[in-house]
Every structure is written in C-alpha cells, then in structure tokens.
Amino acid sequence: MRPISILSALGVVLALYLVVMERPHLVEFASGDTGALGRTALAQGVRGAFGAEPDAGADPDAAPPGTARPTAPPPPAVTERTVAVVSQISQARPIDRAVVLRGRTEASRQVAVRAETSGRVISEPARRGASVAEGAALCEIDPGNRPALLAEARARLAEAELNARAAERLSEGGFASDLRAAGATASLQSAAAAVAAAEQEIDRLVMRAPFAGILETDTAELGALLQPGALCATVIQLDPIRLVGFVPETEVDRIEVGARAGGRLTSGREVSGTVTFLSRAADPATRTFRVEITLETEGAPIRDGQTAEIGIQASGSDAHLVPGSALTLDDDGRLGLRLVGGDARAAFAPVEVVRDTQRGIWVTGLPDTAEVIVVGQEFVRDGVRVDATRRAAADAGADTEADLIDAVDAARDDAPATEPGR
C-alpha cells in the first residue's frame, strides 16, 4: 500500500473523530474563542484518538504553566415552566333535569263505529279526513219491514191495555180471579217491551258520531250489506292530542303527574304539555311504565302516530354551564375539566354531563365556584403552573321549558330501547 493512502485514511479518521467526538471544542477552536484550556482539551482528544497516553499526573483541566485557571460560571437558576391558558369563573346554579325517552303521538279519543243490526246501506259515504260533529249521521241502513213490526207491536200494546183494564174491573167486582188479572198485566208489560225493542231497532238504523272529530276511514259504501259488528267508520279526536312514552323502572320514581314536558317530533316541530297519566303497573314484556302527556297544540294539528322524543321535567340539582370544548380526559379515561387551583396550578376534576344545550354543557361534580380552563386544557397536567387569562362566562339565561327540548338531544342515546308503538 502506498504511503499516501495510509496518510489519507488517517486524516479521514481524525476528521471524523473531531467532528463526532470533539465537536464542541472543534467549534470553539474554529471560532477563535477557545483559550488555552480548550486547546489543551482538544489536543488531548487528538492524542487519545491515536492511542497516545496523556501526561501522567497531569490534570486534564489544568491550564498550561503561566496561564491563569479560568473560573467556572455558576449553574443557571432553574425556572419553573408556566403555561398560558384561558379560563372563566363558573358559578353553580340549580337546573331541572329531564327524563328522556322515546314515544309517539296518540289521539285523545278514537272509536270504530260499528253496526248493531243488519241491513243494506242507503246513505252516501263520507270520505276520510272529513270533520264530523257530535251526533252526525255516518251510516244509514235500509229499515226494511221494521216500521211494520213497530206498528204491530204498538197495536198489540193497545190490545193488552184494554184486556188489562177489563180484567182489573172484573177482579174488583169478584167476577174474575186474581190470576186472570195478573196474566193480563203480564201481557201488557210484554207488549210494552216489544214496542220498546222495535223502536230501538229503528234507532239502530242510523249510526252517529259519538263525538266531534275527523273520519280516519271512509264510511260504509252505498249498497254495502252490513252485519252486526261490521265497521261503519273510524272517528278520531286530535284536539287535544297526547304523547305516549314508556319509562324504564330506574327512572319512573323521578316523574310525577302534573310535571311539565317537552318533545320534538320527527318533523322537527317542538311541542310542550303536562304529564296527565303515569301507569302504576309495568308492561310485563318490557318492564316499562306508560306515561301520557297532554299537549298544547294551539290550534295547529298534529297527526296520530308520529314518533317523538320526549323530555319530562324531574327533580334538579346544582350544575355549571361550561363550553363543550372545555371537556377533556385524564390518564384513566375519565371525563372532566381542568381547573385553576388557588396556587395557580392546574388540577383535574371529574364531572358528569347533565344536559347539552345551545349555550353550552351543564355539568355536575364541581365546587360552587370554580375557575375552569377553557383554552389550553390539553397542554397542562395536574400540578403544572399556569398563567390564566380570564374571560367572561357564558350567560346561563333562564332555565325554561325550552331546555327540556335541548335535553332530548343531549340524552338521546340513553333513551330506553322500547318501540314507540308499544
């Protein structure tokens, strides 16, 4: 091998060593700021790279003779890291909690008008959707020979009255036994009963609406033959209308008759009303309790059978209104908020979400007054010192029935899995 190759290899090794192992001293040397101490350390590093032993007994940190030993600067003071965050002061206030469930609208009254006698329909049919007044004729059956039967019954009644009077006079004069008088009286009563039955049969020929409402089906067609029990029409009453839901047994004790309630139909319409019925017996299949809410429709019609999500007012508790973005998780996966403690250090507080509204989220689990970190909570941990910039808290506003509508969305996933039609 040529000598020049060996020298080149040694030069490359030396350069790599200086760049990798002695980089700080090399930088100082190259900048011209290194002193005798730096040159000595660099020289010793070079000798060590080629296997040369340093001078025995020599202090590697010692300066060359005649050079003053430099004084090491004092270690810099350790400053605690402070994180800038944005916070707001939150004050607890009482709110009403809501029991949320699924349900459906139901007509307050619904009846299927059926025939009580047989015969052919002779009235023109009324079409579904038509409004009917109480007592309005829906279907009329051909009377047939019923008027003749009524006339016969009345004639027999007149004959029975004459026989009864004659028997009574004979009995009083002693010319007839009491048994004959009793038989005449029985015949009279039987004839009167026959007249009443014939008149009732005549009244059954016309089927009338039992209350004012709307026809849900067409009335029986002209010429149709009706038998006893055959359907003439279905009448429903939609004003007032009610919401029907099924409450799980874990929530039933929180509901009382007379409590305010709100709901949102699938069409997006919001309604409100009052609880008018709460079942005392559970459905044996679902173990839920039927609850009925009478709605205030204010003249706007609501259809029967619409699916609805219901929020019923229940006993409340103190809660804080905070932005939804302020919620975070701790290392254990618990949902909570980061607070600013009295010593300006961050602290985690687990919370429970009560209600989600357009103004923010209502949570419990905090002290009556708390300073909540609303921006930067993800960049601090418990015990970290924070520099908090306070901002105004959200306006809680009045806790009105509209919050019951907001509660429907907030707890929709917690509603019982019962069919609306049950």
Automatic annotation (TrEMBL):
GO molecular function, one term: efflux transmembrane transporter activity
Xref: SUPFAM superfamilies: HlyD-like secretion proteins
Family designation: Belongs to the membrane fusion protein (MFP) (TC 8.A.1) family.
Record protein name field: CusB-like beta-barrel domain-containing protein
Domain CusB-like beta-barrel: 247-314
Species annotation: Rhodobaculum claviforme
Biased composition (Low complexity): 51-70
Keywords linked to the UniProt accession: Coiled coil
Coiled coil (residue ranges): 150-208
PANTHER family assigned to the protein according to its UniProt record, in alphabetical order: BLR2860 PROTEIN, MULTIDRUG RESISTANCE PROTEIN MDTA
UniProt keyword Coiled coil present: yes
GO cellular component term, pick one: efflux pump complex
Annotated region (Disordered), positions in chain: 50-77
InterPro entries for this protein: Beta-barrel_RND_2, RND_pump_MFP
